[in-house]
Design a protein that fits this description.
By secondary structure, the chain is of the alpha/beta class. It has one domain: Rossmann fold, CATH 3.40.50. Helices cover 30% and strands 15% of the residues. It is built from 6 helices and 7 strands. It has a 7-stranded mixed beta sheet, with helices on both faces. α1 packs parallel to α5 and α3 runs parallel beside α4. The longest helix has 17 residues. The chain starts with 5 loop residues before the first strand and ends with a helix.
Length: 219
């Protein structure tokens, strides 16, 4: 991984808590630690925010609404759209607002990454089975190398978290999966562990062995 061709992308680690996302404090702590490590190596930090317009314009079809037809989640007139306080956002960081799940859908993200010569994405965020997974797949379709940090990913239930990570591991052919500590070790030139796909659909998970397969990813 060429550090000069690498960026950290943090997906939607925001104050919105109506989903009851699990482990958000741990996610914020790990994300902030990794962001600081990346900045120290000259790696750009990009954060995305999911936003739903409070007036209802351009909402996704079926977006949950309140009785007065305002978005239930990520409403633009609330503090819920802001990055969580546990992550220190600096003036050098890039913040990209998005209006659909994938961070690449009709945003400037791909343009910004290509203008900086980025080929490797260190990525994580929320929610694992929604905005994070669609962003990872869209990054893969755009030929970025994917370095997924599993302990800065979170969603609303353990089953959804495990299954979506397993799906990404199975079908993102160039994915490498780390925890925060091992990625920081790699950035520092120290020894590290990570999980790497051995081929398409390598993890034949079932309801009975899902936890065993999931634990094999946790390096």
């Amino acid at each position: 991984m060429n550090l000069q061709q690498t960026a950290l992308v943090l997906i939607d680690i925001q104050k919105e808590d109506s989903f009851k996302i699990q482990n958000t404090d741990e996610v914020a702590l790990n994300a902030n630690q990794l962001a600081n490590a990346c900045r120290s190596k000259g790696i750009p930090v990009i954060l995305t925010r999911h936003i739903n317009r409070a007036d209802g314009i351009a909402l996704s079809k079926g977006e949950p609404l309140t009785r007065d037809n305002r978005p239930v989640y990520y409403s633009s007139d609330t503090a819920n759209i802001e990055i969580v306080d546990g992550i220190n956002v600096t003036k050098e960081d890039i913040v990209i607002d998005k209006y659909r799940w994938s961070a690449f859908f009709e945003t400037s993200l791909d343009l910004i990454l290509k203008s900086m010569g980025i080929k490797h994405l260190i990525i994580g965020g929320m929610v694992t089975d929604g905005c994070l997974m669609t962003s990872v797949l869209d990054a893969y379709f755009r030929d970025y190398d994917i370095h997924l940090i599993h302990d800065i990913c979170a969603t609303t239930s353990e089953g959804a978290h495990m299954s979506s990570l397993l799906i990404m591991a199975n079908w993102t052919y160039n994915i490498q999966i780390y925890d925060t500590k091992n990625m920081i070790n790699r950035l520092s030139g120290d020894s590290y562990d990570m999980w790497e796909a051995k081929g398409p659909d390598a993890l034949h998970f079932t309801p009975e062995n899902m936890r065993e397969m999931f634990n094999s990813l946790k390096k």
